[in-house]
## 1
Amino acid sequence: MSRLFASLFFLIGLHHGIALAQSDVYLCVDENGKKEYRNTGTTKGCKKVDLPGITVVPALTAPAGKKATTPASTPSNFPKVDDSTQRARDSDRRQILTDELKAEETKLANIKKEFNNGEPERQGNEKNYAKYQERTALLKEDIARTEKNIEALKREISNLK
């Protein structure tokens, strides 16, 4: 999962009030040098990434007997972006999300091809049937995760103006 997508997913979770549990993150590098972040490090070439914890600060509440005030409006001297600049930024964002979606769809097609309807071709290093079953289970997890990534990207794209 790319950093961009991880950041977007985190922001989506915050926006919708979803509590996300923190788990281990692994940086996996395949034989072609392609980097991928995963939540499991069971495959060769994966190293655990040491990430700082997340600090959650609860919202302030009004003392008993007092009404909560509405937040102040944006100050008049606050820097604003003109419409054409914002449209360009939105266009760039849409392009980044679209590129990420295409990459995830390609990845899904490749994983499904390798998965071969639950019967992937056995590799030479899988003389032990348990290794074959482990790889098959990992492929199935990768398919589910990639499908969720695609759904989230499509939702994010549909939320753009």
## 2
Amino acid sequence: MTTPEREKKVKSILITQPQPEAGRNVYEEFVKKHKLTMDFRAFIHIEPLTPKEIRKQKINFADFSAIIFNSRNAVDYFFSLAAEMKVEMSPETKYFSINENVSNYVQKYIVPRKRKMFTSKGNEKDFLTLFKNHKKEKFLFPCSDIRKPSIPDFFNENGYDFSECIIYRTVSSDLSDLKEVFYDILVFFSPADIKSLYDNFPDFVQNNTRIAGFGESTAQAIREHNLILDIPAPAPGMPSMVAALEDYVSRVNSK
């Protein structure tokens, strides 16, 4: 937890995510208001597995009657791997998507059939209700090497015929060019971001750098590395990272 002596003025912030698309930078007004320097740099990226690595998992995509997608990345890598391995999915295959955005993305790769496409409203609780009338299906969950356990847990606890297949992995990006660059605040969004920090800079010392972290799993990773979490989010009255940063910077820069 931050202490009063750590509440120093802020001039520069590094967001450990890719640069937002034009018109989608939620930090833009915040940066202008406080006259800050803000940079974006993804600390992690994803890489697809090879067909050889898929085969090592003893998974054949064509053996499954239903595919579960929880991201557009999963859609892209699944169908790319299927094409590379010359696997043709049956037109009877059912596709279950976490939200409409992902469902629409699936249609880039298949001819949509109403009875074969199932979409939730975007939250996980609603998503899991989609499967209750499909217990006879053989489900495949193509996913990342880093994923929440809730989906596999649901299927295993309820006796579904279910398998998961890692089709892409999260990898630490090369940040060597940042070695001599310093920011007042570093903003992290996942435990993988913290891992990347230490993969790149194993001797990192926090000193006066303030750290912001989004989500409990990120906060836990920060604590495990004996770092000080100065700006947690979400927090009471601050549901987003930009709100938490606004609260902190407004306070320390007004002193």
## 3
Amino acid sequence: MKKLAIFASGGGSNAQKIHEYLQEHPFAKIDCIVVNNLNAGVISKAKNWDCEVINISKNDFYKDSKISNLLISRGVDLVVLAGFLWLIPQHLLQAFPQKIINIHPALLPKYGGRGMYGMNVHKAVFDAKERTSGITIHTIDEEYDKGQIIFQKSVEIESCKSPEEIADIVLKIEHENFAKTIHKYLQK
């Protein structure tokens, strides 16, 4: 059984959907949830998932390889970023080459990069009067949103009247596709 470490900073809706998918398709288990925010909603969700919640500080994350060593010692096969907002440090990239994936709420390479997350992305897409948006699931490298694209799905947003409407539509396709894509990626 493969082991996942899910990194999250917020509510954890994608982590929840991954957990639900694993109940139906037990190809892997969530070994741990790594958070950088003690108020993250994902913490209360994870209490029922038979996994450890690990809180990290910026100092722990960037100054040494403690988190990399911990994940290696736990036998983690894949690191999944599900709303995690910090740039991944070199030690983690070296410990898990091509084994850290992220979901982005737009069709990369458009609307990616530093500061482009959540509603910032949807507002930029809305302001640009795009007719489509979507999701990109990609590997992680040294730069925000520049890794290898694993999966993309677009959706029509022409009738959306606000960035919030775009966010709702995009979140729905995130929930439908993230866990399935993780499953396929781990089968390679």
## 4
Amino acid sequence: MSPGPVSAARAVVLAASLWLVAAPAAAQQDVPKIGYVNTERILRDATPAKQAQQKLEVEFSKRDKELQELAGRLKQINEKIEKDGAVMGESDRVRRQREFADLEKDFQRKQREFREDLNQRRNEELAQVVEKANKVIRQIAEQEKFDFILQEAVFASPRVDITEKVIKALGSSK
């Protein structure tokens, strides 16, 4: 017996129904799992980043103090020149202005060297923090089967933001 028009229509409806049930499940398997990490927040809030900042403060505190003292001396000399300049002898005023100019050049040189050294050391320390963070991010990606983890995004939903997990993992790892 050949299938009639009613049973052919029934077969089409049954096939369509099965497809509608199976299609969402298949589509979900094809959607990549994406995560987002806020690098700026990691470099600010993660334990290794805070430790690096403290290390730099200790390392550069002596030079910073010396610069502050030198700036104070410059200010005193300048105030003395402004206050007593009118009553000073010409040679005394010229000597003090020359002393001020030499000290100011020394101050600017030391300040520039300080900033350059500090920036270089900060970049070295932060590179180590980024390296540690990247290892933790890879571990999380493998454990939770992420397909992508982005570090730069115009927008990221809190649903895909794994920054807090990374910060916690960095805090617990030594």
